[in-house]
Amino acid sequence: MINEFRRARRRKAADTILVTDAMTERVVGHIGNLSESGLLLIASESLVDDALYQLQFALPGGKGSPATVEVGAHLLWMDRASAPGQAWIGFRFIAVAPAHRTLLQKWIEAPGSHYE
After folding, report:
1. Name one Pfam family in it (predicted).
2. pTM to 2 decimals?
3. Helix/strand/coil for 45
4. Please, are residues 41 and 32 in contact by the beta-carbon 8 Å criterion?
């Protein structure tokens, strides 16, 4: 049995949710899973360990167009993925606007979600 020590539920991203570095406007990868306090990024770009980033991504909605979320995030860890040129990267959110936090909460708790 695996014991889960994370405080926040992590919703798996069933669809491809691209993540953009807001400072460079480059797509840096896509979301593996997402919680109110951080995300697992499957990175396609090289990032700097222990650095701060301003990230943007659009959460798919049940109705209407996707909702764009912007977060300040601290890169906590990196590990090479099995695919060449990719890495698994763990981020902790350090700044999220209240409106964007509400969008995250609604998306994470949406009916039919799958969690890690």
Report:
1. PilZ
2. 0.87
3. coil
4. yes
Residue 54, token pair as written in the block: 């301003």
Look at the chain and report how many structural domains it folds into: 1
CB-based contact 9:111 (threshold 8 Å): no
User: Does a structural domain hold residue 33?
Assistant: yes
Express each pLDDT in 59-96 by its tens digit. 987 676 788 999 999 999 999 888 888 899 999 999 99
Give CA–CA dist 9/26, Å, rounded. Answer: 28
Q: Is residue 11 part of a domain?
A: no
Residue identified by tokens 């981020």 is: 91
- Domain with residue 73: its CATH number is 2.40.10.220
Residue 38 lies in a domain: yes
| HSE toward the beta carbon, residue 100, CA cutoff 13 A | 17
Positive or negative torsion for Cα 39, 42, 47, 48: positive
